[in-house]
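Hi L.,

You mentioned the student needs an example of a multi-chain input paired with its predicted structure. This one should do, with 618 residues in total across all chains.
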Amino acid sequence: MSDVTHETTVRVAERVERLTAETSEGPQGLRERRSTGPDELGREVGAVLRGTGITLDPRDVDVERHDDETMIINMGPAHPATHGVLRLMLELDGEYVLRTKPVIGYLHTGMEKTGETLSYVQGATNVTRMDYLSPISNELGYCTAVETLLGVELPERAIWIRMMMAELNRMASHLVWMATNGMDLGSTSMMIYGFRERELILAFFEKTTGLRMNNNYVRPGGVAADLPDGWEDDVTVICDTILERTDEYDELLTGQPIFRGRMEGVAPISAEEAMALGVTGPILRSTGVAWDLRRTMPYLAYDQVDFDVIVGTYGDNFDRFAVRLNEIRESVRIVRQCVERMPGGDYRAQDAKVTPPPRARIDESMEALIHHFKLFTEGFQVPVGEAYTAIESPRGELGCYLVSDGGPHPFRMHVRAPSFANLQAVPLMMRGGMVSDAITVISSIDPILGEVDR
Amino acid sequence: MIPLPPTAPPGVACADALACDVACFPTSGAYLDLVRAWRDDGFEICVDLCGVDYLGHPGRVLPEGVVATRFEVVVNLLSVSSRRRVRVRVQAGDREPRVHSLFDLYPGTEAMEREAFDLFGILFDGHPDLTRILMPEDWEGHPLRKDYAVGRVPVQFKEAPGPR
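Structure written out for the whole complex:
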């Protein structure tokens, strides 16, 4: 009998060993305490943020702990609460998190390398798949960089269409965030509601761009198509519905004692810490820094519309929730102004260099046909140079660094993904919290893994 | 173009840049001091750090006195207080690209430097944990280098030429 037990034990041990070897990330993973130096330990708990007034406190590093007191567990990469294929290695003392290390790269598809083989026109198709919840923002960031290099002037209508679509997209993105955040906290009704409202916007996107997601709508030189007939009514209905329902969700969640209990005071981050870590977007604003590129470094026509930059105070989970919730309302305000003030005219720059000729011209003019053909097979050439442009995506500063060698393909396309930088705040926010708080922390950071890994 | 901060090391070449207040081209020796000077001048956020491999590029425009090397590290700094942007472009070397890490100045560059190391093989002195971040640990080569070919998936129609 004891032989059998022994054999089983050996088999189980072998299996554990094999599984460990198969899933190990090597040095990318979180190492055990005994093979981690004090400096490294300090870095992993976020004690190295040497901004003004923040110094390394050795007592925070808890070097006196030993491996047999703690446990390293995996969360993800296929855990439903990690919002994608994010793997977190947590070191736990009982129910409390001591160290965290995000392990990323499970969704790495080499989009920056792919971008170098696609022409500038095709490039938007590529970048739109990065942050799959706000495709318009990605395209906008990329196209702004291309246009900066080209020096193309956009017609007014293109600018306003872009702004309206970007704001609709921000609403959709924040609604999905509210949905998933609700589900992470056990409010499954919020999950259903959030996705239901997002569907309204996606239906309008489908009507306008032909696709619900990955729209490839914003193109260098303008947008792909004009708004459909009757778009004002559609957008007004969307605005009315979402504004009304946002109030309902506000009522559903904000005053809810369990929700507040799990959000208030959980995982606070200070403004200095956030800026030192390169965190932008709603997370930075929740700490009280009124930094919104739409206001502080206006692009498109954001300097002509009326809206408020929402800021928080404590930088905790609840503030991040409140910032996003109210940003939906501000987006509604901007979209309403877009509907009122949408200028007429062309929806793309009539610059023969970047814009294909109108469809009707192709039937009657050989030159137009050749021009169209050349533009879509070879692409247009962009002058030698480098440009970094940034826009405010729903998650923070989305930048695009483009290097051109004068040819029809970008020589180097780098996207500064907001989630990639924001994710670095995870170890700091998690520290000292409970495992159940870990879920809310990931949720409140709102990482999109497609964008993190690119 | 805005002037360099007073604490900046001498002899740093500067130029105008698109959508940015100034682009600086320090030598790799002056790189860390220059970024520190900018940080002390009120640039709180290092928004972006990325590598560029200029192999096969017909020639970039650099100010006089800057010797172009194959690899370049591009740092974009942002000042929240004064609403300015600054770009620092440092020539990292040809064979074994190597620059100093900015981790001590901006802890947020940790993941970005790891990414530049992973995809370009640029080494960052003083980085606490220079491991691969996007590619698997046992991956060979650095995929975003220009001499690293784009992979290809075999297709059913063998005679058909592959994409590019």
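You could point out the following to them. The radius of gyration of chain B is 18 Å. DSSP finds two helices and seven strands in chain B.

Best wishes,
N.
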